[in-house]
Structure formats: structure tokens, C-alpha cells
Design brief:
The complex is a heterodimer.
Chain A (H helix, E strand, L loop, with lengths): L1 H42 L2 H34 L2 H35 L1 H35 L4 E3 L5 E3 L2 H5 L2 H31 L4 H37 L1 H8 L5 E2 L3 E8 L4 E8 L2 H7 L5 E2 L14 H30 L7 H9 L2 H18 L2 E3 L3 E2 L10 H32 L3
Antiparallel strand pairs in A: 1-2, 3-6, 4-5, 7-8
Helix pairs in contact in A: 1-2, 1-4, 1-6, 1-13, 2-3, 2-7, 2-13, 3-4, 4-6, 6-7, 6-11, 6-12, 7-8, 7-10, 10-12
Chain B lengths: L1 H32 L3 H11 L3 H18 L1 H10 L1 H21 L5 H31 L28 H25 L2 H32 L5 H5 L5 H18 L3 H23 L2 E3 L9 E2 H4 L3 H28 L14
Antiparallel strand pairs in B: 1-2
The chains are: A mainly alpha, B mainly alpha.
Chain lengths: 438, 348
């Protein structure tokens, strides 16, 4: 049973991390494409249309990958987590089914029109198709985050006589206090990824001195979108999300921040390694009293440490949780610095000639992917040992009839298949980038 | 309310089989009907703008199943663990075959994805038929409502049978032939010239497979699960579904002969619809019969979500389906008529 649990968890973690490479780009890129189409329509500037078409191709490849790697996610709720599905299907069945009806149909119907129907639709119609695809992907994100928010902070449910939960307040489920900030935070993270990717391609064109006109346009659009999103992702959405964790999952908050003892005037850790044996942080670099201030707006306020909670409530992998959280926050801070410099240079009219920043922009596109993944790792590890916070433990959600041997078979299958399609995906995207937008 | 959701889920699955069925069928006949690059691209462009939307019906039907009958979703998805995972891998390969093929102008690259597209479409059609076979035959549910089936055991129909036994293989072949002729009818409708002629003759050949397969499936269902007829003897009006299927079957034959591709395609859609509705009518109120003990069978009553959720769901489902109908009418109108092969830059 232990093996089966570990393998099913690994399989879900691996397939969702791989999956989320794609939607995190398409959700943000969808927005940027809409912006490009909008400017093209307003200014009657063909370069923006060419850019939208170019990014439309990258979008389509990523979208296809997102669709095919997304289907296994919905399936795994049933295949590997049957007890969880039985237990919680009466609630999260709502959000997952609504995603299909309201998001997937919208996206898939209009993507074909967006990619192949530009001539048939005309400029306005084509803008409309881009808008529909963008809306579809953001609605999809809403229902998925709503599902996750319910698992983090269950609301609007009642327990039936058979022990399973059922929704009894539809609007509470869709307006979960956890959901608003988490959704905003997730979507902004996605816009950051798209901004860095668009900026990286633009910088590459400028540095290699080809398609330079489009390169300028990419970098310009991307740093503006990037500075807005990377600031908003930290404040207010990130800040508010951490406060949500403090309120609804205080033990997770203590583990994330590396607070072992309850005390007043708690420092904010920047770097340091948790030592779970001695219950302390090695080699800490910190800002004194800042955590207390950020949490309660009082420098001397008290924060509960891990040791004040019973051990069976602790997240199961505290060091990894702590690191994921700090990687996300650290990278997020660097993103703000990069994008603010970009906008500053844009304002001074030196952005397209500053090779140093163009190099940085070209090379930093992988980091938002890492930050988004680390953020979700924080959310999911932070929820442990619970599958549904406070209601069902992860170990109790497993399918009772699927053996470890069978799930290892499929885990290995996913590893192999995803490796192959990942390589092909990279080849294709590199090829599209080298073909250029003109 | 449970009955209503049974009908809704069955309707969505039928929509999936009819819509994604024709692009699966296009994949099956792809290597045989299309002999050169232009013909292959014609087939891909016929399904290109719509296949993804069609496949969403599977996801949406799965989502509705999860929502309306969570216990069934949990039990059947974990019980059919391996075949479902294989279906997922095939769906991945097939989708990438369609979407990646045209991205690189290299013959080996294209041949590879042509092969992936055809093989995955063929295997998927068989698996979907076999899946239906499993539902009709029943599965070894335990008293907690769970089961696990290996891919195969002895190929005989015993309580501890695997996913594949002779009955489900027959059903798999019915699925294969049905989708072959359905897809061939669609391609005939969307194309002209040699490709159209070849598609028509494939549809004509596959029709015999459908006919023979259906007769064998009918007789073997009679012997394996006679309970299916109980609903028919109690409610005679149910015979309208098999009659619809038979009408579709003959329509396929005659309209194929008279080269009225539109009606041939509609006939195969009606055939699929009639057959699936007949099966659903025979199963009701069972969702997944137990081969072990009839009392362990999963029905719409012991698996459904509660009244409040189902009622709320009905509200958004009606809004949703109205929107979806709008999208589909718009998309299919935008791409109606025969396929005109676009330049390599802008199409498949």
C-alpha cells in the first residue's frame, strides 16, 4: 500500500508538472495575443498582426500539448484516486464538469477558427476568435483553481450519511474565500511566463539582428506586460495568498516560512536550510521582525511555530515545502527587478540597444516556469498530509484495487512518452522561432 | 433526476461517438484511402478544424459522469485502469499526429505521424467498442463497488474475465467497422475525385463488417446478458431505438450505392445513435452490472450525487449546452462544403 501510494503521488506530480508547462504559457500568451490583435485593429499596423500570427503558431503547438497532457489529469482522479473521487465527487464534480461545458468547448471551437480562419473571419472576426480562445483558457483556469481551492479550504458542503461529501451551497463553492487570490496569483504567474517567453524571443531576434522590427515589438509588449504582472503577483495577490495560508492553514504557514518556535517579532527568512533533526534553520539570512510585520502589520506580533501543532498535522515534506516557497518568492523578486529595468530602459529609449539586458531577457525565460512550478509545489505540499484539507488524508484517497505494479507500469509509460513528445515539442518550437514572424 | 442525468450523460457520450467517431474513422481509412501527399492533407484538412472540439465531448461527458455519478466514475476508472491509460496514450499520439505532422516538411517526419495517426485511430475504435462490451457483459464488482480487470485472462466470458474476451473483442470489431464506415462516409462527403471514390468503396466494404458484426453482437448479447431484454419486454416503446439503428444501417447501404454522401453520413450517425440508445435502454437503471453478484451492480441510484447538486447542475448544463450548440453550428458553418486544399503555410 505504501508503494502504491508513493507511485500514484509521483505519477500525479509528474504528469501535472509536465502538463502545467503548457497552459501556463497559453493562458498568458492568449492575453498577449489579444493585446496584439487589439493594437493591430486600432492602429491598423500590420506588424502587430504578423506578431499575433507568429505567436498564434507557438500557441497552437502549446495548446495541443496542453490538451493531450490535460486529459490524463481528469482521468487520474478516477484511475488512481478512486476513494477520493467517491468521497469528493459530489462537490468537485461540479467544477470539473463546468470546466468542460464552459471552457473546453469555447477554446477548442475557436482555436481552429483563429488558426485557420483569418481570411474567412476578417480582422474583427479574427480578433473575436482570439478573444474567445483567451476567455476559454481563463475560464478553464478558474474552474481548476476552484477545484484546488476547495481541496485547500473546503466550503459549501455537507457530509452525507455514507460519509461522502456533497455540495450544498453552489455559490460558496465558486466564491470560496481562498479562490479569488489564488486565481489571480495563478493567472498573473501565467502572464509572467508568457511575458518572459515573448521577451526572450524578441531579445534573440534583436541580438542576432534578424526580424529586428518584430523583435522590438515583442520586447516592448513583453516588458510592459511583465512589469505589471510581476508586481501584481507579489502585491496584492501573493501577499494576500500568504495571509490566506496563515488564516486557514497556520501549520503550513509555519513550515513554509521555516518558523519552528512560537514567538514575537519573527524574522523573515531569505535563505537557510531547515534541519528537521535539531528543529532549526542552518545558515540563515533574514530580515528581523519583518515576517511579523507582513502578517499582522505589527513588528512585535506573535506567530505560531511548527512545534505548537501536533506532529500528525505537519506537512509531510517540510524541507521541500520550505524550498519551493522560497524559490518562488526569490525568483519573483528577481522578475520584478528585471522587468522594472526593462521598462526603465524602454522609457529612456535604450532598451533595444542595451545588449546586457537583452542577454538577460533572452536567457531568463526558464525561470518563470520554475517559479510557477515551485508555487504549485508549495500549494500541494502545503496541503499535506491532507488530500482535502481537514477532511480526507492523502493516504485514504487511493484506488483500492489498483496495485503498485500496475501503477508503476503506467508511471514508466508516462515518463517515456512525455520524454519523447517533450523533445519533439522543443524541436518544433525552436523551428518556429527560427522561421521567424515575417 | 437521476434518470435525467442518465439520459444527459448517454446523450453526451453518443455525441462523442458520432462526432469524434468520424474523425477517428478518417484516421482509420487515412492510409488506405489517401495515396499521395495532397490526398492525405485533404483528409487532415477535412477534420483539422473540428477534431479537437469533437474530442472535447469525451472530456465533457467524462466530467458530467464524474459530476452526476461520482461513485461510478471512481469505480470504473480504477477498475479499467490499464485500458484507460492505454487509451490516454493513444489519444496523445493521435492528437500530436494531427497537429505536428504539418509542422515540418520532411517525408520521414510525415510518414511517422501518418502511421501514429492511423494506428492510434484503429486501436481506439476497437478499445471503445470493447469498453461498451465490458459494460454490457458486466464486471467483477466486489461488495464495496470496486473491481479491477486485467487486460485479458483466458478470452472466455467468465466472471473473472479480462477486458478482452471473445465477446468484447467482437464488440471492438463492431466499433472498428462502424467508425470505419462512418469516417469513410464523412470523407466522401468532404472530398471529390479519386479520394471520394475510394472512401465510398471503403464505406461499402466496411458496411458488411458492420452488418455481420452487429448480428453476431446481437446474438451473443442475447446469450451472455439476457437481462438486457427485460426493459424491452416491459416497455415496448423501447424498440424504437433498435429500429432506428436498423433504419440507419439500411440507409448507409442505399445512400452509399446511390452516392448521396450526405445521407449516407447521416445514416451512419443515426445507426450509431440508435445502437447506443438501444444499449442504454437495455442497461437502465444499471450503469455497470456486476458479473459476480447482481446486488453489487452499480446503478443510477447507488452512485448518484445528491439532489441539490444535480438540480444546480441542470441549470448550468442547459446554459452550457445552448452555448455549445451555438459554437458548433458556427464552426461547422464556417468550414462547410468540400475541402479546398490551402497552401502549406496555412493548413494541415
Amino acid at each position: 500500500m505504501e508503494d502504491a501510494l508513493l507511485i500514484s503521488r509521483l505519477q500525479f506530480a509528474f504528469t501535472i508538472m509536465f502538463h502545467y508547462i503548457f497552459p501556463q504559457l497559453t493562458m498568458g500568451l492568449g492575453l498577449l495575443i489579444v493585446v496584439m490583435k487589439w493594437i493591430a485593429l486600432r492602429k491598423n499596423d500590420e506588424r502587430y498582426n504578423e506578431s499575433a500570427r507568429f505567436w498564434g503558431k507557438i500557441f497552437a503547438i502549446n495548446f495541443a500539448m496542453g490538451v493531450v497532457t490535460g486529459i490524463p489529469m481528469e482521468f487520474q482522479f478516477g484511475t488512481n484516486w478512486a476513494k477520493f473521487s467517491t468521497f469528493a465527487g459530489g462537490v468537485i464534480g461540479q467544477t470539473l464538469a463546468m470546466e468542460g461545458m464552459f471552457a473546453f468547448f469555447l477554446e477548442s471551437s475557436f482555436l481552429g477558427l483563429f488558426i485557420f480562419g483569418e481570411k474567412k473571419l476578417g480582422p474583427r472576426g479574427h480578433f473575436g476568435a482570439a478573444l474567445a480562445v483567451f476567455l476559454g483558457s481563463w475560464i478553464s483556469g478558474y474552474f481548476i483553481v476552484a477545484t484546488n481551492a476547495w481541496m485547500q479550504n473546503p466550503v459549501g458542503y455537507a457530509v452525507a450519511p455514507d460519509g461522502n461529501v456533497h455540495v450544498n451551497d453552489f455559490w460558496a463553492l465558486l466564491l470560496n474565500p481562498w479562490l479569488g487570490w489564488q486565481y489571480m496569483h495563478t493567472m498573473l504567474g501565467s502572464v509572467i511566463t508568457a511575458s518572459f517567453v515573448v521577451a526572450a524571443v524578441g531579445a534573440y531576434y534583436l541580438l542576432t539582428n534578424r526580424s529586428a522590427e518584430h523583435g522590438k515589438l515583442f520586447v516592448k509588449t513583453a516588458v510592459v506586460a511583465g512589469v505589471v504582472s510581476s508586481i501584481l503577483v507579489a502585491f496584492p495577490s501573493g501577499d494576500a495568498q500568504v495571509k490566506n495560508v496563515y488564516e486557514y492553514q497556520p501549520v503550513t504557514f509555519a513550515a513554509m516560512e521555516g518558523v519552528f518556535e512560537t514567538k514575537e517579532g519573527v524574522e523573515l527568512l531569505l535563505i537557510g536550510q531547515p534541519d528537521m533533526e535539531k528543529m532549526k534553520i542552518d545558515n540563515p539570512l533574514y530580515l528581523p521582525k519583518v515576517l511579523s510585520f507582513l502578517t499582522h502589520f505589527r513588528w512585535e506580533s506573535e506567530i505560531r511555530g511548527l512545534q505548537s501543532f501536533p506532529k500528525d498535522q505537519w506537512p509531510t515534506n517540510i524541507p521541500l515545502l520550505y524550498y519551493s516557497y522560497h524559490i518562488m518568492v526569490g525568483l519573483g523578486t528577481i522578475f520584478i527587478a528585471i522587468m522594472v529595468s526593462g521598462v526603465f530602459l524602454l522609457w529612456r529609449g535604450k532598451l533595444f540597444t542595451n545588449r546586457r539586458l537583452l542577454w538577460i531577457l533572452m536567457l531568463s525565460f526558464p525561470f518563470p516556469y520554475i517559479a510557477n512550478t515551485a508555487g504549485w509545489t508549495t500549494a500541494e505540499l502545503g496541503r499535506q498530509p491532507w488530500l482535502v484539507y481537514g477532511l480526507m488524508r492523502t493516504a485514504d484517497g487511493l484506488s483500492p484495487t489498483v496495485s503498485a505494479g500496475n501503477s508503476l507500469f503506467t508511471l514508466l509509460g508516462f515518463l517515456g512518452l512525455y520524454f519523447v513528445i517533450g523533445v519533439l515539442f522543443l524541436l518544433l518550437v525552436i523551428k518556429k522561432i527560427n522561421q521567424g514572424p515575417a | 433526476m437521476e434518470t435525467l442525468w442518465f439520459i444527459i450523460v448517454a446523450f453526451m457520450l453518443a455525441m462523442y461517438v458520432i462526432l469524434d467517431g468520424f474523425d477517428l474513422g478518417a484516421g482509420i481509412i487515412h492510409l488506405f484511402a489517401a495515396r499521395n501527399e495532397n490526398e492525405r492533407r485533404t483528409i487532415l484538412n477535412a477534420i483539422g478544424p473540428v477534431w479537437d472540439g469533437n474530442e472535447v465531448w469525451l472530456l465533457a461527458a467524462g466530467g458530467s459522469l464524474y459530476f452526476a455519478f461520482p461513485k461510478l466514475y471512481a469505480s470504473s476508472f480504477s477498475g479499467f485502469y490499464l485500458p484507460l491509460m492505454i487509451v490516454l496514450w493513444l489519444l496523445i499520439l493521435r492528437a500530436l499526429g494531427i497537429e505536428f505532422r504539418h509542422q515540418v516538411q520532411n517525408n520521414l517526419w510525415k510518414s511517422f505521424w501518418d502511421g501514429a495517426f492511423a494506428v492510434s485511430s484503429i486501436l481506439l475504435s476497437i478499445f471503445f467498442g470493447a469498453a461498451l462490451g465490458n459494460v454490457v457483459r458486466g464486471v467483477p464488482l466486489n461488495k464495496d463497488g470496486y473491481f479491477f480487470e486485467p487486460l485479458w485472462t483466458t478470452f472466455t466470458v467468465v466472471p473473472e474475465a479480462g477486458i478482452l474476451d471473445w465477446f468484447t473483442v467482437v464488440m471492438g470489431l463492431v466499433g472498428f467497422f462502424t467508425l470505419t464506415s462512418h469516417g469513410a462516409n464523412f470523407i466522401a462527403l468532404k472530398t471529390e475525385g479519386e479520394l471520394q471514390k475510394r472512401s465510398r468503396s471503403i464505406a461499402a466494404i466496411a458496411w458488411w463488417g458492420v452488418l455481420i458484426g452487429s448480428v453476431v453482437a446481437f446474438i451473443s448479447t442475447w446469450s451472455i446478458r439476457p437481462q438486457v431484454w427485460q426493459n424491452y419486454t416491459e416497455h415496448m416503446w423501447g424498440f424504437v431505438f433498435p429500429l432506428l439503428g436498423i433504419a440507419g444501417l439500411f440507409g448507409m447501404f442505399f445512400y452509399n450505392r446511390s452516392r448521396q454522401d450526405k445521407f449516407a453520413f447521416l445514416s451512419s450517425a443515426i445507426f450509431i445513435c440508435g445502437m447506443l440508445a438501444s444499449t442504454a435502454f437495455g442497461l437502465y437503471p444499471n450503469l455497470l452490472p456486476a458479473s459476480t453478484n447482481p446486488e453489487y451492480s452499480l446503478t443510477i441510484y447507488n452512485t448518484a450525487a445528491q439532489e441539490y447538486g444535480l438540480t444546480v447542475g441542470l441549470t448550468w448544463w442547459v446554459i452550457g449546452i445552448a452555448l455549445v450548440t451555438g459554437y458548433f453550428v458556427f464552426v461547422y458553418k464556417s468550414f462547410r462544403g468540400k475541402v479546398v486544399l490551402p497552401s502549406e503555410e496555412s493548413g494541415y
